[in-house]
Design a protein that fits this description.
- By secondary structure, this protein is an alpha/beta fold.
- Helix content is 47%, strand content 12%.
- It contains 21 helices and eleven strands.
- Strands 4-3-2-1-5-6-7 form a seven-stranded parallel β-sheet, sandwiched between helices.
- Helix 2 packs across helix 18.
- It is found in: Plastid, Apicoplast.
- It catalyses: 2-C-methyl-D-erythritol 4-phosphate + NADP(+) = 1-deoxy-D-xylulose 5-phosphate + NADPH + H(+).
Length: 481
């Protein structure tokens, strides 16, 4: 990311009025678009399924779930929390506050927010506290000393610090709330120590699924989804026997442009790109980080979730569908072999999937607002427009290709997403074009077998650089209508 950031600073120089102007429109000729459009309903062939990383869809998973359920709610989990000062981390700590008998915090890892980390250390008394830089770690030590901390943790920093937090001996569950490829190494090392993973880092499976899934099976750990859609699927699958799952149905809010037709969106991109830029980074339902909000506007977030669902639950890409559900109350569904559909509903509260990921399969009593269907009145659903949202097709194509292609998709999207938000002269519709270009270029070096962590990290870096370089030609290119 240092390379991308330095290039961004150069691109900002000499910025012209072309900023945020779309440089292309998608057409039905795109192979990626055709691939996505053909994905409607379960193919029912049974082809393309894999062993899941989440504890579902097998006799062993059923036995494990039953065994843990019978333990009752007097359990205690010891947590290592990666990303403790972000939204995932702070909400996880709210759960710890609500259930102090069930959770102990043994390690905290975060970015550079030394002040908040100091407050967390004073409250939860972890054994390890890690920050991103040596300067932040030094500031943390100063703040703790000033606060009279009598139980000083091991204060570490950088990549080694994250690894130390993830592998602290006493923790049995690692909550991966950090963003990006930085979550891969600590997750892998935690798995090797047979720690369960509460998965809030999408890149772990989107980029690294080919590496992670075999490790999950080898070390016998539980991979427990902590985001709302995959938690919903996971909850719906509790008790579904081996071979009982027919189809996964991911729900999507539709993002910032859900109420516009394809033609209306493309016209707005052409005539008022600045309005598009502002709208694309504002979610209609809730406040999220800028990157995720833009991913929601392009619906790449849902495409990435398709890949994650494939690795978590084993379903083939032909058996994973997306449906737009603006109310965001049905968080996702599964269809069983007898065509029954099972859905998980709830208010849009990130704490709900988080608490299930760290307490599974138990159900803890929490003081949250109950769902009131009468208050809602109605729930609506519609199919996504694949021409309007070409990123969906790109994700399906990357997933079906497999190997290192999903790492390229993810990294290219992150780079294009960042540049769009940094106002370097890209249009909203340039985002999928840049991603598609990186995927096409990667076909020459695609690796499908024996993929290793180094392969993923190298492809991640290459894709980011490719997008930055390719973006130069889009900034002043003529608009194609």
């Amino acid at each position: 990311m240092k390379f991308v950031s330095s290039v961004l600073s150069l691109l900002l120089l000499g910025e012209a009025a072309v900023a945020f102007t779309p440089q292309y429109k998608t057409t039905k000729s795109s192979s990626f678009l055709q691939s996505a459009a053909s994905n409607s309903g379960s193919a029912g062939t049974g082809e393309g399924w894999i062993d899941p990383s989440a504890p579902v869809n097998s006799e062993a998973a059923l036995k494990k779930t039953l065994q843990k359920s019978l333990e009752g709610n007097k359990f205690q989990k010891r947590l290592s929390l990666l990303g403790s000062t972000g939204s995932i981390g702070t909400q996880t700590l709210e759960i710890v506050d609500a259930c102090p008998d069930n959770f102990v915090v043994d390690a905290l890892s975060a970015g550079n927010n030394a002040q908040l980390m100091a407050e967390q250390v004073m409250k939860y008394h972890p054994k390890v506290a890690s920050l991103a830089t040596p300067e932040a770690a030094q500031e943390l030590k100063r703040l703790l000393t000033k606060a009279g901390c009598t139980d000083m943790p091991d204060i570490v920093h950088g990549e080694e610090g994250i690894l130390e937090a993830a592998t602290v001996a006493s923790a049995d569950t690692v909550v991966t709330g950090i963003v990006g490829a930085a979550g891969l190494k600590p997750t892998i090392e935690a798995i090797k120590l047979k720690k369960d993973i509460a998965l809030a880092n999408k890149e772990t499976l989107i980029s690294g699924g080919a590496v992670i899934n075999p490790l999950v099976e080898e070390y016998g750990i539980n991979m427990l989804p902590a985001d709302s859609e995959h938690s919903a699927i996971f909850q719906c699958l509790q008790g579904v026997p081996e071979g009982g799952l027919r189809r996964v149905i991911l729900t999507a809010s539709g993002g910032a442009f859900r109420d516009l037709s394809k033609d209306e969106l493309f016209k707005m991109c052409e005539e008022d790109p600045r309005v598009v830029q502002a709208k694309a980074t504002t979610h209609p339902n809730w406040d999220m980080g800028a990157k995720i909000t833009l991913d929601s506007a392009t619906m790449m977030n849902k495409g990435l979730e398709v890949i994650e669902a494939h690795y978590l639950f084993g379903a083939s890409y032909d058996d994973i569908d997306i449906v737009v559900h603006p109310q965001s109350i049905v968080h996702s569904m599964v269809e069983t072999q007898d065509t029954s559909c099972i859905a998980q509903l709830g208010w849009a509260d990130m704490r709900l999937p988080l608490v299930y990921s760290i307490s599974w399969p138990h159900r803890l009593k929490l003081p949250y607002k109950p769902l009131d269907l009468a208050q809602l009145g109605s729930l609506t659903f519609k199919a996504p427009d694949h021409e309007k949202y070409p990123c969906i097709g790109l994700a399906y194509e990357a997933g079906r290709t497999g190997g290192t292609m999903t790492a390229v998709l993810n990294a290219a999207n992150e780079a294009a997403n960042e540049m769009f938000r940094e106002d370097v002269g890209l249009g909203f519709l340039d985002i999928p074009k840049l991603i598609e270009g990186a995927m096409e270029a990667h076909k020459e070096d695609l690796k499908l077998k024996d993929v290793q962590l180094d392969d993923i990290l190298q492809c991640d870096e290459w894709a980011r650089q490719h997008v930055v370089a390719a973006s130069e030609s889009y900034k002043n290119a003529p608009i194609l209508l």
